[in-house]
Write a structure and sequence with these properties.
This protein is α+β, with helices and mostly antiparallel strands. Helix content is 57%, strand content 15%. The chain has 3 domains: 145 residues, no CATH class; 66 residues, Helix Hairpins, CATH 1.10.287; 149 residues, Heat Shock Protein 90 (2-Layer Sandwich), CATH 3.30.565. The strands form 3 sheets. A 5-stranded mixed sheet has the order 5-7-8-10-9. A hairpin with a 2-residue loop joins strand 7 and strand 8.
C-alpha cells in the first residue's frame, strides 16, 4: 500500500508542500466540523433546557393557582394560558388541582413560537459562523499555498539568475584577460592596438552593463530608487545614445528613425532613459539572428512621445507580452538555454520607465515575426 502511494506521488509529481497543504487543510476542516457539531449540540441542549424550565414553571404556577378560592386571573404578559381540562387532557397542560380540576395551565403558543424562533436564530448564527470560519480557513490556506509557490518560484528564479549571471560575467572577463595577455606578450602595430582597444572597450561596456543591471535591480527592490525627471530634448538625446552604442558596438549597428520635430521636448530622466534604451537594444540584438537590423523609431502620438525598438528576432508567443517584464523571467529561448541572459533587462526597463511617469509595452505578431518594445513618455507643451 505504501509503495502504491509512493508511486502515485512520483507519477503525479506531488511535492512535499502539496501533501502538507492537503493534510493541513483536512485537519482544519475536521476542526471546523467538530466546532460546528459541538456548538450545534450545545445549542440544542440549551433549547431543551429552556423548554423544560418553562414546563416546570407552568407546573409550579398551576399548583399555586389551584389553591385559589375563586377563578384565577393571569396577567396579560404571562407566558401561560388557562385551558379547559374537561375530556382528554390538553397536551402539555398542568391541571389546577384540587380547587379547579376542570382547568389547566399550559405555555402560550406565542411563547413557544418565540423560543423556537430564538433557537432558529441561534442555529442560523452558528451555521453562518461555521461557514465563515471554513471560508476563512480556506482563504488562509490558499494564501499560504500561493506564498509557498511564490517562494519556490523566486528561489528557482534566483538560482537560474545566478547561473546565467555567472556565465554572462565570465565572457567579458575572459575577453579582457585575453586582451591583456596579448598586449603584454606581443609587440603590436598601431592598427592592432586600436582594434584590441576597441574590443576591450566593448567587453568592459558589457561588463559594466551587467553590473549596473544588478545594482539598479537591487535599488528598485529596496525602494531606494528615485527618478529626477525634467524637460529634455528627446531627439538630440536619443541620437546621442544611439551614436554612442554604434561606436562601442560597430558590429551591431542600430538605426535611428526620427518621425517628429527636432525641438520635441519630453518629461523624463536622461540617465534612466539611457538605461532603458540600452536594455531594450541589448534585448533586441540578443534575441535576433546575427546581422538582423534593429531600429529605434521616434514618433508622436497625441500627448505621448513613443520610442519603439523594433527587431526581427524570435518574436513572442501569445500570453508572453506581460510575463517577460517580471523579474528573472526570460523568453522561451532563454528558458530553453538557447540564449544567454540574466532576466533583469526588461524588468529594469519597465520599472525605470514608470519611475518618471512613462510606460513600456511589448508587441509581437507571433513567434519568428520579431517584436516591438515601445516606451511611452509624456510630451512637454
Amino acid at each position: 500500500m505504501i509503495g502504491r502511494v509512493r508511486r502515485f506521488i512520483a507519477a503525479k509529481k506531488v511535492r512535499a508542500y502539496h501533501v502538507l497543504f492537503a493534510v493541513t487543510t483536512l485537519a482544519l476542516a475536521m476542526l471546523g466540523a467538530w466546532w460546528f457539531i459541538l456548538h450545534w449540540e450545545q445549542q440544542d441542549a440549551v433549547h431543551r433546557g429552556v423548554l423544560q424550565q418553562l414546563q416546570l414553571r407552568a407546573a409550579l404556577e398551576a399548583v399555586r393557582l389551584g389553591r385559589a378560592e375563586r377563578l384565577p386571573a393571569l396577567p396579560p404578559d404571562s407566558p401561560f394560558e388557562l385551558v379547559a381540562m374537561v375530556g382528554p387532557e390538553k397536551e402539555g397542560a398542568h391541571p389546577l388541582a384540587p380547587s379547579w380540576p376542570t382547568l389547566g395551565l399550559k405555555p402560550k403558543a406565542a411563547e413557544l413560537d418565540r423560543i423556537a424562533e430564538k433557537h432558529h436564530r441561534r442555529v442560523v448564527m452558528i451555521t453562518g459562523e461555521g461557514i465563515m470560519l471554513m471560508l476563512l480557513i480556506l482563504v488562509c490556506m490558499l494564501m499560504l499555498f500561493r506564498l509557498l509557490l511564490s517562494e519556490r518560484r523566486e528561489r528557482a528564479n534566483m538560482e537560474t539568475f545566478l547561473q546565467a549571471f555567472s556565465h554572462e560575467l565570465k565572457t567579458p572577463v575572459a575577453g579582457v584577460r585575453a586582451l591583456l595577455e596579448t598586449l603584454s606578450s606581443r609587440d603590436l602595430s598601431r592598427e592592432e592596438l586600436q582594434r584590441y582597444s576597441a574590443l576591450g572597450l566593448r567587453e568592459t561596456a558589457r561588463l559594466q552593463g551587467l553590473i549596473d543591471n544588478v545594482l539598479v535591480a537591487n535599488r528598485i527592490d529596496r525602494k531606494l530608487f528615485t527618478a529626477r525627471p525634467r524637460e529634455m530634448a528627446i531627439v538630440a538625446r536619443l541620437r546621442d545614445y544611439v551614436d554612442r552604442r554604434n561606436r562601442i558596438f560597430p558590429d551591431k549597428p542600430t538605426t535611428l528613425v526620427v518621425e517628429c520635430p527636432e525641438e520635441t521636448q519630453i518629461w523624463g530622466d536622461p540617465d534612466l532613459l539611457r538605461h532603458v534604451v540600452d536594455n531594450l537594444i541589448d534585448n533586441a540584438f540578443k534575441y535576433s539572428p546575427a546581422g538582423a537590423p534593429v531600429t529605434v523609431r521616434l514618433r508622436l502620438d497625441g500627448e505621448w512621445c513613443m520610442i519603439a525598438v523594433e527587431d526581427q528576432g524570435i518574436g513572442l508567443p501569445p500570453g508572453e507580452s506581460e510575463r517577460i517584464f517580471e523579474k528573472f523571467v526570460r523568453g522561451r529561448a532563454g528558458e530553453e538555454k538557447t540564449q544567454k541572459g540574466s532576466g533583469l533587462g526588461l524588468y529594469i526597463a519597465r520599472e525605470l520607465a514608470t519611475a518618471f511617469d512613462g510606460a513600456l509595452t511589448a508587441e509581437s505578431e507571433g513567434e519568428g515575426k520579431g517584436s516591438v518594445f515601445t516606451v511611452m513618455l509624456r510630451r512637454v507643451g
